[in-house]
Amino acid sequence: MTDPRYDVVAIGNAIVDVMAPCEDELIEELELAKGGMTLVDTERAKELYDAMGRATEISGGSAANTLAGMAALGAQCAFVGQVAKDQLGDIFAHDIRAVGIDFDTAPREGDPPTARCLIFVTPDGERTMNTFLGASQFLPPAALDEELIASAGVLYLEGYLWDPEEPRSAMRRAIEVARNAGRKVAFTASESFVIDRHGDDFRALIEEGKIDILFVNEHELATLTGEQDFDAGLDMLKDKVPTLVATRSAKGAVAIQGGTRAEVAAEPIDKVVDTTGAGDLFAAGFLTGHTRGEGLETCLRIGAICAGEIISHIGARSEKDLKALVAEKLG
Amino acid sequence: MTDPRYDVVAIGNAIVDVMAPCEDELIEELELAKGGMTLVDTERAKELYDAMGRATEISGGSAANTLAGMAALGAQCAFVGQVAKDQLGDIFAHDIRAVGIDFDTAPREGDPPTARCLIFVTPDGERTMNTFLGASQFLPPAALDEELIASAGVLYLEGYLWDPEEPRSAMRRAIEVARNAGRKVAFTASESFVIDRHGDDFRALIEEGKIDILFVNEHELATLTGEQDFDAGLDMLKDKVPTLVATRSAKGAVAIQGGTRAEVAAEPIDKVVDTTGAGDLFAAGFLTGHTRGEGLETCLRIGAICAGEIISHIGARSEKDLKALVAEKLG
């Protein structure tokens, strides 16, 4: 096994976020699932966009946000995801490359257009996401560069992309390629509704020992294990997943690895402005620490610092120099 | 003459801003005119975008920003500008309508795409703009709804759009329509380089008495009059333009109307984050006061409050409730 060329390669949704502030009344009026992520079709996407205020466009996607954080921390990263050959696709490709991430998935011709996520941000900082998957759902297994997958220390997968069939097949294939190359597979469950739809698949992957690093939040842990008690949920998974990481919003995060359990408090911040990307950036910090061989507690701490930065402003990609911030806070 | 249906109708560039922070070194390396606006062709736009970091897209355009501010202050507004039938065009149309502005210019089929302005924001808050005019330069005189122009109390024109031929003809025609309907014509010189190119046209319009309200900053005033001294420059124009408004960045602004001169200091703010849109929002505040029949000093004050809000954050459209802010500050 040669040394990996990349610290991480991620497969995820290639999405442009369309964000606008709104009042709680609009969430009710539009019958949105506040705080959650809902898949929407063309018609519903149009209806929601029409009801949305003046918006800001910024490249997003859960795994892509995680990679952007890792790249900012100095990790070598590559991304695999499907955009269409259109303006939003150009924007996504520009932005991910601009932060130093290799991205070579060929854009897809014709309809549907590049994916977008309509994000309504309420005054409490919660984001309600409505994703039109567009081209993103057509990432074909054939688009996988198996040499690329084998050349990264960690393969990182987002649960959101388990919904559409083609990317799911691509991710299954990527897991095999990574494991055969002796690499680690990291997986984020993304959201409890995703587990509602695909829990059996996820549980099977875990039982088969195919997930080396698993990221869940407390709701996802409960949905995945069927166990409402947080610690009981962790107990059910800790012997099946070599590195288990569970985040708990304001209550911080827990990781269990090889029988060792570590905890970290949430980073104190002045004001939660927008929670978009908190989990993505926590994963970025944790994984960066992990790929550098840091101890469990330090990995958690880097995750918490990155998550704290991202929720203190609008948008899911960092505004500060994350590397300097982490260096300063770790001391 | 019937009462106007709109307070203002503006003709301007229909542009999406593509903004990214950058260091001064990059400005030098790319040989950009720091603080200025440069028109760029497709090739140069691509080169600059490739060199640009991760960006945020937000609808812009000078006159459109002014209207967005006026709409936020409660004015009835309509916009005329040319987008292409593409994703950026959809974004522009959505955003301007989302703030309550009527916008009915039909999108243009085929190439070129919707205009974009690549904005590099340096740590001192200055913005260096590079505009790819795209579809915006093809606003045809035929697209003018003359009834619309005649139905607004004020016709507001941006100097930036004087560069391309078709919109220039459209604006000349609009001036005639507005004047014949007994409406006022307001004009912003936009930038001194624009005056370098079209000063003779602008001076002729002024001499012919076709401009009722003129917005200039001190550089533009000097370029337009050939007079380096600020007060001497004002003296040259004050009898030719019924309402003359001159802004001076941190030094505040001056207005002269019917022999009366009023001044206002710049609004004190904690930190200049990004000066994009300062002039646009000053015009928004001043014009809103003017259309309401406020005194000259109050008009200047509303302008200063709006400009102060916009430079305290990234982006050229307001993040706060401008109406409440102005009400609070005016007392």
Automatic annotation (TrEMBL), chains A, B:
Family annotation (Gene3D superfamilies): 3.40.1190.20
Q: Which UniProt keywords apply?
A: Kinase, Transferase
Pfam families from the UniProt entry: PfkB (PF00294)
Molecular function terms from GO: kinase activity
InterPro entries for the chain: Carb_kinase_PfkB-like, Carboh/pur_kinase_PfkB_CS, PfkB_dom, Ribokinase-like
Q: Which residues form the Carbohydrate kinase PfkB domain?
A: 45-318
Highest taxon, organism lineage? Bacteria
Annotated family: Belongs to the carbohydrate kinase PfkB family.
The molecule here is called Adenosine kinase
The species is: Qipengyuania polymorpha
